[in-house]
Amino acid sequence: MKQIPTDVDNFMTLIDEDYYYIDKTSYIRALEAQKKFILLVRPRRMGKTLFSSMMMTYYDINAKEQFNHYFGNLSIGENPTCLANAFFVLQLDFSKVEGYSDDLPTHFKEYCFYKLIDFFDRYPGYYTPQQREQVLSSNSVKNAIVRLVDITHLMNKKLYLFY
Question: In terms of domains, do 79 and 11 share one?
């Protein structure tokens, strides 16, 4: 019997463990038609994290082999867009940054570099050790992300940033 996904905010887990899922994949085409940055504003506990997780799975190049498993029975699975599984995905969840005003900048930088290390660990073989070092040796988060974007662009690949 299917379960109702209370406190499940990971799309892959939701599908893997056969929870009920209200298909929101039909919004992907409309979102791709937007030419600007997208800001999702909803009240707490209204599915923003799960929706972002679904989008990350849809666009992540690492999920390409499992596309049919995750999306085959959903609206977008019938006719995927050309951007399906075409990106490296970097997710920054700023709610995970802890601290008060004095130490917040330090915690922010530590968190972002932790996520950049995790990013390189999730995409082994795509980036050289030198490229990884170029990004991780940056003196600021901004410079690190700019370098990552530049390096990825030079590889003729795409980077999707979720924050």
Answer: yes
pLDDT in tens, 2-26: 888 777 888 899 899 988 888 989 9
Query: Does 81 score more than 60 pLDDT?
Result: yes
Beta strands in the chain (DSSP E): 87-91, 158-162
Residues 108, 128: Cα–Cα separation, whole Å: 26
Closest CA relative to residue 58, chosen from 79, 37, 40: 79
| End residue of a domain, out of 23, 54, 85 | 85
For residue 60, the enclosing domain spans 1-85
Q: Are residues 59 and 109 part of one domain?
A: no
The C-alpha angle with vertex 119 and arms to 142 and 45, in degrees rounded to 5, equals: 85
What is the rounded distance in angstroms from the CA atom of residue 80 to the CA atom of residue 101?
Answer: 44
In this predicted structure, the answer to whether residue 117 has a pLDDT above a threshold of 80 is yes
Q: Which of 6-10, 14-18, 92-96, 150-154 has the highest mean pLDDT?
A: 150-154
Say yes or no: 127 and 71 in one domain.
no
